[in-house]
Amino acid sequence: MTDAAPPDDPERPPTITPPTPVHAEEDHSHDVPRPDPAAWFAGEREMLRRDNASAALGMVVERDEPGEAVVSMRVRDDMLNGFAITHGGLVFTLADTAFAIACNEDDGVTVAAGADIAFLAATRVGQTLTAHARRRALVGRAGLYDVTITDETGALVAEFRGRSLTTRRSAPGDG
Question: 93: part of which helix (H) or strand (E)?
Fold first, then answer.
């Protein structure tokens, strides 16, 4: 007998794999472990290459411009809550990632000072969510950003507002 947990063990964390372009009922992506999340999480900036959390959730950076970002994520079965809908914390995380990319416009370290979200529609496994973040205001070191989250049809899923603060810190690895 081994110490390995059986595949159905609820205490064993799921294997994290990149999203694949298949129908939800045909999704076998959990069968093969992904070797390096940072290797396929899109983005040229060091901040994005170090973002293991967003990469592990299968997020893809579609746009990265000063004050604006677009990030998408396909909903997997391990992202569902007890009602078989996308866990709200993961919708928030998608929006937060787009917000972080939009507000980190230069070599400074900008962090969230606060954020709010309004959940407007439920989503399910197989759907693709897209978060579009836009800068609304930047005054000194403080910023205000709106993020709209939609599904693959363009239907509104959630609205997020983030407040940023540019710190005086250097990014990890910047000396």
Answer: helix 88-103
Structure tokens at 46: 């060091």
CA dist., res. 67 & res. 104, Å (int): 8
Please give the single-letter amino acid code of residue 69.
A
Angstrom distance (rounded) from CA 156 to CA 136: 19
Q: Which residues of 114-125 are buried (b: 16+ CB within 10 A; e: fewer)?
A: ebebebeeebeb
> pTM of the predicted model, to two decimals?
0.75
DSSP letter (8 states) at residue 111? E
Summarised one tens digit per residue, pLDDT across range 98-155 is: 999 999 988 789 999 999 999 999 999 999 999 999 999 999 999 999 999 999 999 9
The span from the CA of 81 to the CA of 77, in Å, is 9
DSSP annotation of 14 reads P
Give the residue, 106 or 161, on which the prediction is more confident. Answer: 161
